[in-house]
């Protein structure tokens, strides 16, 4: 397993990390994702550790806290071997204090996460969404207190816009609060919006991308194809409306390109889609999920090899979209392009 620095921090994380959203299985969304219990989770953690995957990502909202509980059981007795990442801010109930990033909410959410996980510290504590109703100064001060208390070691954000992330980083610098080092984002071959503003922000400010849903909300498994009905056992029957939308023809065009490269490499479509992400700028770790041992072992096949520059270029071409204003002038006009060159992946290491 390759290990990379998380953004501009000194923390090294595996190129692949494991998403525990399939643990617990409570509610219509997370029940469709999976219902892995503690015994099954321990087995998946065993496989991850054997492969060098040491970071496990969860959130309080996943199955109403059950994901954190199951993960805590699965890592019991080997806490020192793993990195635990969790998130808060999304609603956990209907009460006035059950959502957001107020000081009260963050302190309570951290304490409850520690209890459910069965640990006394969280390696990476992330805000699951921006809270427009709480002053950023209050948010950062509360997070600073959690870091100073030793309950949290590193801080991150998830699903922030560019201005929300930049304003937060500027205020942290102004008052000497710990800076965010990670941004957990949606990014895939059929969802490249991250590249328009958030990737340049990550490059400029040292925010490492933790990629969620690298297979486009389950659409890049190789089972969703032109002219075929959605497989009967696909979770998309239950979860499609919750995830990022994609036009059918765009999806099929990308799958066609993946098919060609699968023939050339002998790799599966999911493995190629994940490998493409691992070569993109700012990506610190790609979060993979699995309901079964077979799915996990398949995803592990995404590392240990590299797509060629030609294969990367073909995938780029198949998945590329015309970007919206104010980004499109940079692609079309020479003057803008000279001032704002496009973000490209560095050449692979020899």
Largest beta sheet, briefly?
8 strands, parallel, barrel
Output the radius of gyration: 20 Å
Distance between the termini: 17 Å
User: Mean of residue pLDDT?
Assistant: 90
**Name of the CATH architecture:** Alpha-Beta Barrel
Low-pLDDT residue intervals, each spanning 5 or more residues: none
Task: Offer a few descriptive terms.
single chain, about 350 residues, alpha/beta, TIM Barrel, 10 strands, about 15% strand
Q: Can you walk me through this structure?
A:
The chain is built from 14 helices and ten strands. The chain has a single domain (3-339), classed as Alpha-Beta Barrel (TIM Barrel), CATH 3.20.20. 40% of the residues lie in helices and 14% in strands. It has an eight-stranded parallel beta barrel, surrounded by six helices. The protein has a two-stranded antiparallel ribbon with strand order 1-2. By secondary structure, it is of the alpha/beta class. The longest helix is centred in the last third of the chain and has 18 residues, at 248-265.
């Amino acid at each position: 397993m390759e290990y990379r620095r998380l953004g501009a921090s000194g923390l090294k994380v595996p190129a692949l990390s494991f998403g525990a959203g399939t643990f617990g299985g409570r509610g219509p969304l997370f029940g469709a994702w999976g219902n892995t219990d503690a015994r099954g989770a321990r087995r998946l953690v065993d496989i991850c550790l054997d492969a060098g995957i040491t970071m496990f990502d969860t959130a309080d909202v996943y199955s109403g806290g059950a994901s954190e509980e199951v993960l805590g059981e699965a890592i019991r007795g080997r806490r020192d071997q793993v990195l635990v990442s969790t998130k808060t801010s999304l609603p956990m109930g209907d009460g006035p204090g059950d959502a957001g990033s107020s000081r009260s909410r963050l302190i309570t959410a951290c304490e409850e996460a520690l209890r459910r996980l069965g640990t006394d510290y969280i390696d990476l504590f992330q805000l699951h969404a921006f809270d427009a109703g709480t002053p950023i100064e209050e948010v950062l001060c509360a997070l600073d207190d959690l870091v100073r208390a030793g309950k949290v070691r590193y801080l991150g954000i998830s699903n922030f816009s560019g201005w929300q992330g930049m304003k937060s980083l500027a205020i942290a610098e102004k008052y000497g609060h710990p800076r965010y080092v990670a941004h957990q984002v949606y990014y895939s071959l059929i969802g490249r919006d991250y590249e328009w503003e958030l990737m340049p922000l990550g490059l400029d400010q040292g925010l490492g991308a933790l990629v969620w849903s690298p297979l486009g909300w389950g659409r890049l498994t190789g089972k969703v194809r032109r002219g075929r009905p959605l497989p009967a056992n696909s979770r998309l029957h239950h979860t499609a409306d919750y995830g990022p939308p994609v036009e059918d023809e765009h999806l099929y065009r990308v799958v066609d390109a993946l098919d060609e490269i699968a023939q050339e490499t002998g790799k599966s479509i999911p493995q190629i889609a994940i490998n493409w992400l691992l070569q993109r700028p700012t990506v610190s770790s790609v979060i993979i999920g699995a309901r079964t041992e077979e799915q996990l072992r398949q995803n592990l096949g995404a590392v240990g090899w590299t797509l060629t520059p030609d294969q990367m270029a073909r995938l780029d071409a198949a998945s590329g979209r015309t970007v919206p204003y104010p980004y499109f002038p940079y692609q079309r006009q020479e003057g803008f392009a000279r001032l704002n060159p496009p973000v490209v992946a560095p050449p692979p290491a020899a």
